[in-house]
Amino acid sequence: SGVGDAQLRRHREERGFTVLGPVAPVVRLAVVHIERHVAEPRPCPQVLLVVLADAGRLARVQAVLWRRFGSDYEILGSTTRADGLAQLSELTAAGREAALVIAGRRLPDAPGSDFLADAITLTPGASRGLLVDWAEAWGGDPEARSDLVRASVLGQFDRLLFAPTADPDEA
């Protein structure tokens, strides 16, 4: 029984694990590593925030993001500008940050581009994406086109994102 075994034994006893006897060095490192992560769960340090007026669409976009980024980011959602800003304020107060903030073009209480402009004051390091439908981006809706041009000229978003049209699992 070497020094490593004594440290492992003490480590395991402190956490209430059963001590079986001497352990091979590779296994010792693996056990300590696993026990540390089981005993000390950590929240995801960064967040992806999605703000969309339609709760069903919000759930679909969150599901797509969670499948791709869920292991690295916490995926949050909101259906109004006010709730989205409140979530960003809570994150800032907790010392956390948003890596990406996504908003739909139309929210019930403000245009999505205005929300993104306000969000940058709370999370200056976050990327901002305006989520649009294909028709909105390609001029099918003249009002949408003028909104997008205005928001782009004012620098209210970093990226124009196209809304998923179908769940990839259903295609």
Plain-language structure description:
The protein is an alpha/beta fold. The protein is 48% helix and 17% strand. It has helices at residues 3-14, 25-39, 55-69, 81-93, 112-122, 134-137, 142-153; strands spanning 46-51, 74-78, 97-104, 127-132, 159-162. Strands 2-1-3-4-5 form a 5-stranded parallel sheet, sandwiched between helices. Helix 5 links the parallel strand 3 (97-104) and strand 4 (127-132).
Key descriptive features of the protein:
5-stranded parallel β-sheet, 171 residues, alpha/beta
Secondary-structure blueprint of this entry?
Elements: H1 3-14, H2 25-39, E1 46-51, H3 55-69, E2 74-78, H4 81-93, E3 97-104, H5 112-122, E4 127-132, H6 134-137, H7 142-153, E5 159-162
Parallel strand pairs: 1-2, 1-3, 3-4, 4-5
